[in-house]
Design brief:
12 strands; 351 residues; binds pyridoxal-5'-phosphate
Length: 351
């Protein structure tokens, strides 16, 4: 068990570690309580079915599949587009590679090759040059994965023009394009690109309900009706078939209705944090969404020392590397919490 998060001076901590730490709101819990449910492995849960078709319609895909986590949703999608022994191209910092514990290789028999970590600034021509054609001697490239927004890339938003160029490259090479859209909601709010426009560019997508949207559990895999029928078997094989999952899907449906537009508030608070910390030379990349990556190389503090000092003052941050720290704004961080974080973090940097 991780050490419990204690309160400081009688106040709850300002938890900026991740947008996964949110707790369902009272209204979301009420929606969960009222959910109509059935056995989803039998295909009988109406709330899950409604969620799947709503998300699919939003992105203009034929079908969707509710999955217990973003990682499982990604891995199901990758297995749909890359046969065993085939190759996936992705960013060296991609979540599908860096944080999914070798699942593509372990469960999908998928070989992975990466382009140098570029966050949202990926260069389509670099990707194009890496595509390996079919041949009995070769590991043929079968799919390209991108991440929107880019987690290790500081919440950067891949421009629509880049994604369109990548789509053309994928079409010309006959390979599939997958989007890890755990935070695609933030990209939509930041750049104003309609969800259906994003949806039209990808063969498969995974979109997450339990990060910025604030639901307790769940992601949705999107694709063609045929692919999603196959995805249902893959999910079951991975142990991800759920029974009365409508309780969880109801939280996701609530989040889709009530928690997308408000992401602009999280972006504004992240921008405020970045603006306050910028004079110390520690903000790693321009902040576009709800992630604020800090690079402490210009500070005498390392990441662990910075995080421990912040924790002692009731502000929780994530340490991503010896000198790398991340702050994340979300549903459970309000303006007062942002002010408190600014006060604590700037005082630490001034020491
Ligand atoms: C970009 C991205 N993709 C996928 C995931 C995986 O989601 P989960 O933690 O639900 O498996 C995360 C989790 O933080 C993420 O940031």
């Amino acid at each position: 068990m991780a050490e419990p998060v204690r309160s400081v001076g009688g106040q709850p901590p300002v938890d900026l570690r991740s947008d996964t730490v949110t707790r369902p709101t009272a209204a979301m819990r009420a929606a969960m309580v009222d959910a109509e449910v059935g056995d989803d492995v039998y295909g009988e849960d109406p709330t899950v079915a409604a969620l799947e078709s709503e998300v699919a319609a939003l992105f203009g895909h034929e079908a969707g599949l509710f999955a217990p986590s973003g990682s499982m949703a990604n891995q199901i999608a990758l297995q749909l587009v890359v046969p065993r022994g085939g190759e996936l191209l992705c960013d060296a910092d991609a979540h599908v590679l860096a944080y999914e514990v070798g699942a593509a290789a372990a469960y999908g028999g998928i070989s992975t090759r990466t382009w140098p970590a570029a966050g949202a600034n990926l260069d389509p021509e670099t990707v194009q040059a890496m595509i390996q054609p079919d041949g009995y001697w070769a590991v043929a490239t079968r799919a390209i994965a991108v991440e929107q927004t880019h987690n290790r890339g500081g919440g950067g938003v891949i421009p629509l023009a880049t994604l369109r160029q990548l789509r053309d490259i994928a079409d010309a090479a006959g390979v599939a394009l997958h989007c890890d859209g755990a935070r695609i909601w933030h990209a939509h709010v930041a750049d104003g690109v309609p969800f259906a426009e994003y949806g039209s560019l990808f063969d498969t997508m995974s979109v997450c309900l339990s990060k910025g949207l604030g639901a307790p559990v769940g992601s949705v895999v999107l694709g063609s009706a045929d692919r999603i029928a196959e995805a249902r078997s893959i999910r079951k094989r991975l142990g991800g078939g759920m029974r009365q999952a409508g309780i969880l899907a109801a939280a996701g449906r609530y989040a889709l209705r009530h928690h997308i537009a408000r992401l602009a508030e999280d972006h504004a608070r992240a921008a405020r944090l970045a603006e306050a910390l910028a004079p110390f030379g520690v903000v790693a990349t321009p902040v576009r969404t709800n992630l604020v990556p800090l690079d402490l190389r210009k500070s005498p503090l390392d990441g662990a020392t910075f995080a421990a000092a912040a924790r002692a003052e009731g502000v929780l941050v994530s340490v991503l590397g010896p000198r790398a720290v991340r702050l994340v704004t979300h549903l459970d961080v309000d303006d007062a919490g942002t002010d408190r974080a600014i006060e604590v973090l700037t005082a630490i940097l001034r020491r």
